[in-house]
Amino acid sequence: MEGGEEMQGAVGLRCTWDILPPTGTQSKWVRLNVGGTVFLTTRQTLCREQKSFLCRLCQGEELQSDRDETGAYLIDRDPTYFGPILNFLRHGKLVLDKDMAEEGVLEEAEFYNIGPLIRIIKDRLEEKNYTVTQVPPKHVYRVLQCQEEELTQMVSTMSDGWRFEQLVNIGSSYNYGNEDQTEFLCVVSKELYNSPSGLSSEPSHKAKVRP
Q1: CA–CA separation, 80 vs 97, rounded Å?
Q2: The predicted structure's pLDDT at residue 163
Q3: Are 36 and 79 contacting, i.e. CB atoms less than 8 angstroms apart?
Q4: What domains are there in the chain, each with its CATH number?
Q5: Which residues are in the BTB domain (predicted)?
Q6: Can you say whether residue 167 is alpha, beta or left, with left for phi > 0 and alpha for psi between -120 and 50 degrees?
Q7: Predicted confidence band at 86 (pLDDT cuts at 50, 70, 90)?
Q8: What does the buried/exposed string (b/e) look like for 134-148 if buried means 16 or more CB atoms within 10 Å of the residue's CB?
């Protein structure tokens, strides 16, 4: 591709790099001391994204940075998340260890102003959030025991998403004066959606209560 390189990005996205630096600077190596960890790379790699902090730093554009005793640029950032950022500039793919938080890499990508990487991580996070919201709801059932005269009040006061499912007549268990009090089992249900932590806001077991 004339005027730049095209790399295959993560999650099906393609990353097109800006124009490379002049030929005379492509072979020069750069040392970066990020939070006490030294990284060695080339100006060509750092300038793949020409609007980034890293490109401007190694080109000496408007940025003043201290150097350590070896001449490496000192950058006061977390080195844990810098490795994936540097590798992204090298080959255009986001590769993370299974225990590494994408949010941490996103924070650093925004600091270094690496636009293509920011978009890729945000797309991945949005896809994860969408997947969580698509988890089918769980149905929780409760069995409430009540007398005939309590039915109307109980059904009318149901709230918080509970709905009536079934009414079972279990006969007369009590006698007050000359009248038998018929007992009912009222089955109610509620839909519960999983939270991002995988826990429901209500227990999944049946409960039998008497108002």
Answers
A1: 11
A2: 80
A3: yes
A4: 29-132 (3.30.710.10), 138-173+181-192 (3.30.70.2000)
A5: 28-129
A6: beta
A7: very high
A8: eeeeeebebebbbbe
Measure the CA–CA gap between 10 and 182, rounded to whole angstroms: 66
DSSP string covering 71-111, please? SPEEE-S-GGGHHHHHHHHHHS-----TTS-HHHHHHHHHH
Region of 92 (left: φ > 0; alpha: ψ -120 to 50; beta: rest) is left
Question: Cα 33 to the chain's mean position, in Å?
Answer: 30
Measured CA to CA, the distance from residue 121 to residue 82 in angstroms comes to 14
187 pLDDT above the threshold of 90: no
Task: Report which DSSP code applies to 207.
Answer: -
- What's the predicted TM-score (pTM) here? 0.52
Cβ atoms < 10 Å from Cβ of 90: 15
Q: What is the mean pLDDT of the chain?
A: 75
State yes or no: pLDDT of 80 exceeds 60.
yes
